[in-house]
Amino acid sequence: MATLLDGHSYIHYTEGYPLSTVHPSSTTSYSARGQAFTVKTSEETYKLTQAKFYLKKVGSPTGHLRARLFAMTGTYGTTAKPTGSPLASSPLVDIASLGSSYSAIAFNFVSEYEVSKDQKYCIEVHVNDGSLGLNDRVDMAVAGGAEATHDGNKSGYRESAWLTSASLDCCFYVYGEYVEPPPPDQYT
Predict the structure, then answer these.
(1) What domains appear along the chain, each with residue ranges and CATH number?
(2) Tens digit of pLDDT for each residue in 17-63?
């Protein structure tokens, strides 16, 4: 059974932020957005199973989205952003399946990557392929101002770099399945 590892509810939503080009973006348009989070559980180890972001399509974008888990660099809550190669990647989600109103879009992970209690990570969604622009895009629900109460921070990718915002949080959830520790060695 899946356990909520961390999240920031859609009830905090204040505005939408666009994904309007294929990742990695070398222009001023964003190709990825995500959130720094902490595994907030009572047990030690969980297998990452799912991430959900509140997304909608605007106009008629085409293509696919993918969620990825990264290690974190920077200061958690202010300048945290993804670093290195992805630790886990979801299968593709067809942009055509998104509605014109925000809904929780699930990205399921099959890599069985294990995350640890109290560890900090970055989870992001990027445009893997497709045809998008300012009028044909995907919007992500984000919390700003007094509603940005998650202890992590939002990041986004454009102009060939990850940018961060301490005053914004994505509306997201990350889930995992508990991993039983191995039995004690009975022969020692």
Answers:
(1) 2-178 (2.60.120)
(2) 999 999 999 999 999 999 999 999 989 999 999 999 999 999 999 99
d(CA 35, CA 37): 6
Give yes or no for a contact between 95 and 107, defined as CB atoms under 8 angstroms apart. no
- Short-list 61, 70, 118, 71, CA closest to 90: 70
How far CA 26 is from CA of 67, 100, 161, in Å, comes to 20, 27, 8
Which residue in 12, 27, 8, 109 sits closest to 66, CA to CA? 109
User: Model pTM?
Assistant: 0.94
Instruction: Name 176's bridge partners.
Output: 3, 48
Peptide bond into 24 cis (omega under 30): yes
